[in-house]
Amino acid sequence: MTDSKGREGYHDPLAGLGGAAPARSALTLRFVLATFGLLVCSAGAVALWVAEAPVAFPLIAGLFALVAVVDLVVVIRRKLHGEPG
Fold it and tell me: How many CA atoms within 13 Å lie on the side-chain side of 57?
């Protein structure tokens, strides 16, 4: 048996007492924020494209929208598998 630092044969008798609770992801908050980011970045990319801004600006906004889509996919997948949050 090893501990989190890899020390062989280490046993902490007080490991279950006190301390912080295990970290959990706030999936619903991530879902809301990713949806907001997707909407804002998509609208920004379209607005920049229509306004004939330099090509890099709508591409960057589109890239951020794509990142939001990936985050939405991850969050939805985790929620469907029953993770809390």
Answer: 11
| One-character DSSP codes across 12-43 | -TTTTSSSPPPP---HHHHHHHHHHHHHHHHH
- Please state the pTM of the whole predicted model: 0.69
Residue 4 within a domain: no
Amino acid at the residue 66: L
- Would you say residue 73 lies in a domain? yes
Q: Can you tell me the distance from the alpha carbon of 67 to that of 71, in angstroms, rounded to the nearest whole number?
A: 6
The residue count for the chain:
85
Residue linked to tokens 């006190």: 18
Looking at residue 70, what is its pLDDT? 98
Q: Which domain holds residue 51?
A: 42-85
How many domains does one find in the chain?
A: 1
Scan for tokens 């929208």, then name that residue.
65
